[in-house]
């Protein structure tokens, strides 16, 4: 029997990974892993078990058109009591994990392995997981974890900047605020060796299979998950699609990873980058203003593209409003707001 890895993504951003035999329905495969998917009829008639398969190949047993219309099936909506996977898949459910997952998200022990200022008010933090019961965090590029702030009870969310293929060290880019629990720590007492618990992963902001052109909008440290996506695409050989990145910061001095962005293009990723800063400075000849002002119809090509936005909430709101106004399918717009805790 052939088995595939299936990632179940719940509405609150928690995920669960299971192995599913092709002969088993997803409902059954999940049950074998003690995960209960919401179901009722179990025969493809009621739609209670409906989800969306955002990645991978599958087949369906018989079901009623009343439960899943042809339009819904074309949008890759699935009845998971009738669904068999034919490859690794990602399935999203429209309800929180609390119904399906009994155990809380795993917390791993980690230690700070490196801390470096890479631009004005931006710190790169490297955390190494310690060997433990849970193994490395299995995440999708774009997702985030909760990091415990050493010496406090505070926990903050940070997006992985490293790809999932790199399991021995996790890289994060942290914007240093004038005042804040994590900001004070990274700007002050942070030292290699400090204990830092890592909980997760979480998030519905993750790279979809790169099957069409990609547009990305990153504000400040919102670039971090994009870097994870780029490294993953290179590692997976998924370099066939053009990627247009709009990357903005408050000032030129706050832009980071510019060499890495050039390097991705040199290594074969079809990446073009446009930079923008809110306030220019001497030597800056690029555009000024908010990064979303760089959005314009020609970037979208035919409009059949995947769009990823990450950064401050006002940037996401402005970008999403422009994109939907320009006719981009809301289902193709993926975003992560760096909301304060
Ligand atoms: C899903 C998710 C992923 C995230 N990923 C990242 C990441 O990769 N990199 C990153 O730098 N941040 C990221 N954040 C934001 C991060 O979790 C913290 O909110 C941020 O680093 C501030 O933490 P702090 O402990 O320094 O400040 P806090 O102690 O949380 O806040 C101190 C004060 O600053 C205010 N504040 C918080 N954030 C901001 C802000 N951005 N601008 C102005 N004022 C603010 C708060 O309202 C509060 O008054 C993410 C947030 C979410 C929800
Ligand atoms: S449980 Fe009724 S359609 Fe799947």
What features would you describe in this structure?
This protein folds into 3 domains: 3-99, Ubiquitin-like (UB roll); 107-202, Beta Barrel (Elongation Factor Tu (Ef-tu), domain 3); 214-337, Rossmann fold, CATH 3.40.50.80. It has helices spanning 26-32, 70-74, 181-187, 224-236, 258-266, 313-325; strands at residues 3-9, 15-21, 50-55, 58-60, 77-79, 83-85, 89-92, 107-108, 110-119, 122-129, 144-148, 155-159, 170-175, 198-202, 214-219, 243-249, 271-277, 306-311, 333-337. The chain has 341 residues and is an alpha/beta fold. 16% of the residues lie in helices and 31% in strands. The site of FE2/S2 (inorganic) cluster has 13 residues, from loops.
What topology emerges from the helices and strands here?
Elements: E1 3-9, E2 15-21, H1 26-32, E3 50-55, E4 58-60, H2 70-74, E5 77-79, E6 83-85, E7 89-92, E8 107-108, E9 110-119, E10 122-129, E11 144-148, E12 155-159, E13 170-175, H3 181-187, E14 198-202, E15 214-219, H4 224-236, E16 243-249, H5 258-266, E17 271-277, E18 306-311, H6 313-325, E19 333-337
Parallel strand pairs: 1-7, 15-16, 15-18, 16-17, 18-19
Antiparallel strand pairs: 1-2, 3-5, 3-7, 4-6, 8-14, 9-10, 10-13, 11-12, 11-14
If you consult CATH, what is the topology of the largest domain? Rossmann fold
Number of H/I helices: 6
What is the CA-CA span between the terminal residues?
45 Å
Secondary structure: number of strands: 19
Tell me the fraction of residues in β-strands, as a range.
Answer: 25-35%
Bound small molecules, deduplicated: flavin-adenine dinucleotide, FE2/S2 (inorganic) cluster
User: How would you describe the shape?
Assistant: globular
Helix content range: 10-25%
CATH architecture of the largest domain: 3-Layer(aba) Sandwich
Radius of gyration: 21 Å
**What do we call the CATH homologous superfamily of the largest domain?**
Nucleotide-binding domain of ferredoxin-NADP reductase (FNR) module
Largest sheet composition: 5 strands, mixed
């Amino acid at each position: 029997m052939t088995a595939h890895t299936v990632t179940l993504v719940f509405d609150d951003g928690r995920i669960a990974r299971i192995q599913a035999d092709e002969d088993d329905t997803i409902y059954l495969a999940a049950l074998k892993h003690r995960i209960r998917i919401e179901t009722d009829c179990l025969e493809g008639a009621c739609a209670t078990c409906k989800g969306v398969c955002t990645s991978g190949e599958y087949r369906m047993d018989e079901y009623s058109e009343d439960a899943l219309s042809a339009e819904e099936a074309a949008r890759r909506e699935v009845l998971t009591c009738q669904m068999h996977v034919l490859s690794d898949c990602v399935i999203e459910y429209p309800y929180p994990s609390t119904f399906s997952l009994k155990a809380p998200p795993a917390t791993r022990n980690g230690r700070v392995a490196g801390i470096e200022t890479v631009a004005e008010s931006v710190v790169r933090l490297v955390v190494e997981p310690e060997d433990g019961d849970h193994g490395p965090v299995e995440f999708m590029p774009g997702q985030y974890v909760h990091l415990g702030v050493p010496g406090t009870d505070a926990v903050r969310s940070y997006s992985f900047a490293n790809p999932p293929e790199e399991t021995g060290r996790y890289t994060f880019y942290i914007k240093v605020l004038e005042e804040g629990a994590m900001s004070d720590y990274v700007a002050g007492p942070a030292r290699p060796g400090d204990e830092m618990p890592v909980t997760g992963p979480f998030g519905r902001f993750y790279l979809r299979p790169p099957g069409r052109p990609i547009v990305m909008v990153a504000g400040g440290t919102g670039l971090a998950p994009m870097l994870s996506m780029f490294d993953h695409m290179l590692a997976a050989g998924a370099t066939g699609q053009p990627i247009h990145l709009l990357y903005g910061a408050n000032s030129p001095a706050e832009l980071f990873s510019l060499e890495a962005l050039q390097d991705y293009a040199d290594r074969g990723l079809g990446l073009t980058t446009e930079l923008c800063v809110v306030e220019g400075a001497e030597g800056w000849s690029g555009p000024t203003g908010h990064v979303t002002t760089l959005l314009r119809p020609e970037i979208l090509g035919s409009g059949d593209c995947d769009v990823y936005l990450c950064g401050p909430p006002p940037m996401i709101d402005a970008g999403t409003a422009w994109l939907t106004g320009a006719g981009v399918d809301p289902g193709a717009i993926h975003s992560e707001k760096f909301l304060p805790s």
